[in-house]
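Attaching the record inline, Q. Sequence:
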Amino acid sequence: MPSSYWAIWQQECDQADQIVVNSAWSKTLLEKAGVDPGKIQVVPLVYQPPTIAVSFTRTYPRAFNQDRPLRMLFLGLVNLRKGIAACLDAVNRLTGEPVEFWFVGPLDIDIPAPLRHHPQVRWVGPVPRSQTQEYYQQADVFLFPTLSDGFGLTQLEAQAWQLPIIASQYCGEVVKPGVNGLVLETVSGDAIAQAIRELLQRPEWLTGLIPTPSSRVGLAQLGQQLQALNCSKL
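Structure, as predicted:
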């Protein structure tokens, strides 16, 4: 963005009485940019799952093998900011192990030939939103290793389909470590590979990581959070 864009943005932040962001990560970044912390209010995103997701039941095999590998789903724009470099490094580190990577979404980078044709990788490409539920249903774990996202709505979509999530810490706080997924301390191929190996070694753990409907936040809670905003300055 040109410097004029940021100058206008800074002026808007200075004039605003309150600034609503959708994650603590976004709040941290605004504070680093010099925005008054007292103005910033965190209101997370919500997601209303489709009716079919409510009745969906997820199951796992007792063990993963070459005939039934662990299916890792990456869904969204395939670019560097979303952590694709770390994912591809993890693919190389896990070559020969019973794990499969599905990349669903438009490619925004050039994929090296060995990875384009890697036997453990499926490059699905862009799909209509109406078809994404098929991949959420068939996958075993959702992979969200973003380098920076204001929130990451796909985390809530995956959660609605009872998918445990491996996510970075640079996004909305959907994942509770050991409860509904794992949080990467660093976005790297080594960190991703280690998390996946842990699941391969303890496949029974996945069942305990399946998100429950009670862990979701809906429109009613969102309304309450918006009403609770301190608007005394307005």
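Strands lie at 19-21, 40-42, 70-75, 99-104, 121-125, 141-144, 165-168, 181-184. The chain has a mean pLDDT of 93.

More tomorrow.
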